[in-house]
Amino acid sequence: MAFDSLSGKLKEGIKKLLNSTGSEKIEEVISEMKQALLEGDVDKQIVEKFIQKVRDDIKAKKGKGLVSRERVVDIIYEDLIEILGTGENKIEVNTVPFKILLVGLFGSGKTTTAGKLANYYKKRGYRVLLLPLDTFRPAAYDQLSQLSKQINVKITSSGKNPVDIIKANLASFKNYDVIIADSAGRDALDNELVKEIKDINATLKPNNVTLVIPADLGQNASMQVKSFHDLLGINSIILTKTDGTANGGGALTAAYISGAKVAFIGTGEKLNEIEEFEPKQFVSRLLGLEGLESLLKKAEEENIKINEETVKNVIKGEFSLIDIYDEYSNTRKLGPLDKIASLIPGLPSSGKTKELVERQGENIGKFVNVMDSMTKEELENPKTIDASRISRIARGSGQSEEIVRELLEQYKKMKTLMKMSGNKQVQSMMRRFGIKL
What we know:
Elements: H1 4-18, H2 24-39, H3 44-63, H4 69-84, E1 98-104, H5 110-123, E2 128-133, H6 140-151, E3 154-155, H7 162-169, E4 178-183, H8 191-204, E5 208-214, H9 220-232, E6 236-240, H10 249-252, H11 254-258, E7 261-266, E8 274-276, H12 279-287, H13 290-301, H14 308-316, H15 321-334, H16 337-342, H17 352-372, H18 376-380, H19 387-397, H20 401-421, H21 424-432
Parallel strand pairs: 1-4, 1-5, 2-3, 2-4, 5-6, 6-7
Antiparallel strand pairs: 7-8
Helix pairs in contact: 1-2, 2-3, 3-4, 4-12, 4-21, 5-6, 7-8, 12-13, 15-17, 17-19, 17-20, 19-20
């Protein structure tokens, strides 16, 4: 993706922050992120505003005694989403016919995007009409016509003047749900082309003006977006060429400058390679938190209910085998324990934590069987389990005495590890479940 360079640097910052010791690393990582955003072609003023907001939010939390490295990650995550735009991003068809006017620079990929959008709405049951208004580029109509045949969508005839094309087809618009107009590429500062697009806008009266902008536009994105917005009033943005090698930060900040929302991202040249833009999902990818988001989604799908008191006890190292039993039951619904651990950002991938996770993952099913054979007293106070009880539990569970002892040993190690580390990554994950610790 065009954001790989930017994302890589941001991920490194998050990893460094989560695995660091001492609060001095927080400011160091924030400074590094600022530099990464600037190098990624994000508008300088927006970077300054973002970094200042992060610092202000950290300071506000610190005043309440709640700040931590993990909370800093949450703040960075939330503030980035705010820049990209929260709320509804989709281009909703709320009237018929719904007219979408695509505008943008030369070579931004508008014609291909017109085909992708037509395909997107057709698949959702809408009657779509393509309106070829690019009379400047000789091959534009042929290209759009070929795309229309591939997806079996109607296209109007062409002409020499875009305004005349609109007028000639106005009467037929009522037969369609969505009209997608592909205009000629233009520099928003070119006076002749500015007059043409104004005339197109006045004649078509679009319900939505969408700016198609390539992810490799860089710092020039700010000027062009502002110019187009002042000219037409941009409602939505579609990012193209996100599969290139550029930084992409300039295009990302287009929404912030115009107040419009990024609605779609083009992920390739094929007509199905367009996806709805989800700020939370996108920021999760940038920061390397997408695994955590997937984990939370899976938990929601499995209708897993989190017991706050149990979680708090586990993190404090004050838990019984009853608590472990409940958590193991939930964990089995989510998948292999080592895979779950790999989705938690910042969780150490080597040493005692990795060894503990691997051992528990291998035996989790057996451990549940063992605990099913324990009495309530034994689950609440594992210290009461002596050699004779181990033999009885092993027979009742169909497991070996070695597995029973392994469970008890892992239980002790887990308590010690939690008490020593407080497991900050787990605390961060629980906050995303809505649990306040």
